[in-house]
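Reply to dn_fold:

You asked what the input looked like. This is it:
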Amino acid sequence: MKRLSLLIATLLCISLAATAQTKPDMVLVEGGSFQMGNPGNAAPKGDNDERPVHAVSVKSFYIAKYELSVKEYKQFINDASVTIFSNKRDHKMPAAPDSAWYAEHPDTKKFYPLPTSPWWDWVDDLPMQKVTWYDAVAYCNWLSEKQGLQKCYVENADGGIDLDRTKNGYRLPTEAEWEFAARGGNKSKGTLFAGSANAADVCWYDDSSKLRGPQKVGSKKPNELGIYDMSGNVWEWCSDYYDKTYYAKSPQADPFNAVSSAYRVLRGGSWHYQVEHATVTSRDGPEPHYTNFNYGIRLARNAQ
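and this is what came back:
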């Protein structure tokens, strides 16, 4: 009987360990003020949506030290109790790149001449990728619930998703928070890449990755706050709606674009993009249901 009880207890411990959620490593970003955007005075000059440069202040917040890993996302996918937003996407791991994807990306195809060469696969310590904005916020709500925190995202009467910034759970950073953290917060040295003027020190982009896929999280140098991969590896979704003219009308204090549109903000560049997209000021704005093999997640939380 004692042996049976011990066996049951051991199996229970193994089961709990297998289902336990990884608690993300969060970095406190002390609030402060900065000049947001790229003036375009020196290369890389950035795009017009990075201008005008404007003064912004943000409150203190937490942001993840690393991009969300495949291992962390698998826990979400493998949880049968997950409830996700209606009609947004099937709850499953994305499929591997297929022949059509490689045909659309000839530079990558030459490193993976199908069908003989394997792709990079869902390896635990790689950044999770090919997630939509809806996947990202569903993950935030799931992790919040698992850790007894308040959910930050709610589905509204029109079927859209709203962010409640008063809640204490996990969320995506606002665009202003993302840029402030990428710059190094109050410790910023003013570099245009997250932690260095030399992109190769801190960033996986097309030349440094050789288009062979995403790389292990945290394998480059961190920025001034000890945060990794804010330049390159995978693009990171933000909570804001995307508006290419938002900087001309952005409020100064803790800005967040909640005006509904068909697009959401992405930041940071990726292993498959050129280096000019990996700056701390570069912006993109795809549709929230769209994704690719370089769209990922970085978590944030209120500092309270």
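The domain at 22-302 is CATH 3.90.1580.10 (paralog of FGE (formylglycine-generating enzyme)).
Hope that clears it up.
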